[in-house]
Structure formats: structure tokens, C-alpha cells
């Protein structure tokens, strides 16, 4: 993908995201048709599905040769990362969307032959678009984001992580994670992985840890982070795999290794 193609796809995707966000805001106070998926707290609404369908239909019309991975099933099942792939989460933070009516995002990451080219995380209610193109930096609306602070220490870090890290879990001994939260400056949970990653890229939070995330939760946010020096991988420090669900660690480069060392101590 050359710069001209990247720019054209970026502008097209940005327009669709704004349009999709406006539709969500317009219809979010109508009945949401809430359903549970894998468990009673894993929720989906008609607006999750309609938003994904809106985006997928437009991609199919405009770029019939591109592939799509989406949470709600309108995309393709892919076994490799060849070609151009749009990785879409139509509403990231559905529980926030349903209960709190805020703090949710549309997330899109566009890869070409496995390389992240374009990333978006759109905070729908605050109308904040985080966006990035490979090699051209990451932005919050019109403001260019600075490279992440290379002097950051774990003791001064704000880390996004949900409370299951401190309960018995399959990834890591929770007593090690209790030690971790006592080591860092503060822990936060906002309930949208995509927004948490955007906040790491913005430098208002220094890391985000998740026990299990799908490609659509993180694709857009990882591409943003790449542009400011943020590092993304699984719980063992392996690079992100855009075709697999896995634990996720995204962090300021100065503290990434120490987080992986902490996890190693309690890794199951
Ligand atoms: P979602 O809202 O798109 O489902 C909530 O802690 C964060 O984890 C959200 O970003 C949510 O994305 C994501 N998540 C990933 N897998 C999940 C699951 N099985 N159930 C609920 N949230 C999940
Ligand atoms: Ca979901
Ligand atoms: Ca998600
Ligand atoms: Ca979602």
C-alpha cells in the first residue's frame, strides 16, 4: 500500500466512522434489543450489529478485494493476513454503551500483508477521533500525539486493567498481580479496551493489560500506539497476532519489559 492509497482509504474510513457514530447517537435511546452471547454479561445490541453491517456493506461496495474481520459476524473467516484486512469492532464497550451511555468506541485497524497501516478509535459520545497512519504519527482530533515518555517508571505508572486480574484467573497467579497493583501508582478500569489503548497512545495512561482480547478489540489501538512508541503483545512478550484471541499487554516502552517480567513471575 503506497502513501496515496493509504490516504484515500484513511479518508474514506474516517467519513464512514463519523457517519456510523452519528447513527449510534441518533438511535441509542430507542429500544436496543439487548442479547447475551457467551455469558449473561457478554452483551450485544442491534446497534452493534447495524453498525458493523453499515461498515461492512460500504467496504464491500468500495473495496471488493479487501478482507474484513469483525466481532458481530458480518466479516470473513481468515486463515492468513495476506492482502488488505479491515479489523472492526463496531461498538467497543457494549456494557458501557448499554448501562452508561458513554465511554464506548468504534475501533478499526487496517492492515496490509500483516502490517498495520491505518488505525482509528472513535470515542462516540465525546466526539474524539484518535487516528494514525503508518509513519505519519498518531492524532487526537487535530492534535498530534507526542512520543511516549522514555523515562517513565513502573512506580509512576497508571495502568488500565480490570478486576479479574486480582481474582483467580487462567493467565497469572493473582497474588503476583496484587503485588503489581501495589507497585504501580494507580490502576484504572474504563471498560473499553479500544479507548484504554487510545489513552496509552495519548500518554494519559501508561499501560493496559487484558486477560483475553480479540483482534477487533485492539487492532485500531495498537496501530495508534506504534506511531508513538507504545509496545503491544501478549502476556509473554510475544508480538500481537491479528488472527488470534489472547491476553494483551500494551505499554509505554519504558515499562513494557518490567510488566512482562512481573507476569512471568506468576504466569500459569
Ligand atoms: P466489547 O464491549 O466489544 O465486547 C470490557 O472489559 C472490554 O473487554 C471491552 O473492550 C470488551 O469489548 C472486551 N471484551 C473482550 N472479550 C469480551 C467478552 N468475552 N465479554 C465481554 N467483554 C469482552
Ligand atoms: Ca462484545
Ligand atoms: Ca471489543
Ligand atoms: Ca464490540
TrEMBL record:
Keyword annotations: Hydrolase, Magnesium, Metal-binding
Metal-binding listed as a keyword: yes
InterPro entries assigned: Inositol_monoP_metal-BS, Inositol_monophosphatase-like
Species annotation: Oceanobacillus jeddahense
Protein name per its UniProtKB record: Inositol monophosphatase family protein
Pfam families tied to this protein: Inositol_P
Claim: Metal-binding is one of the keywords in the record: yes
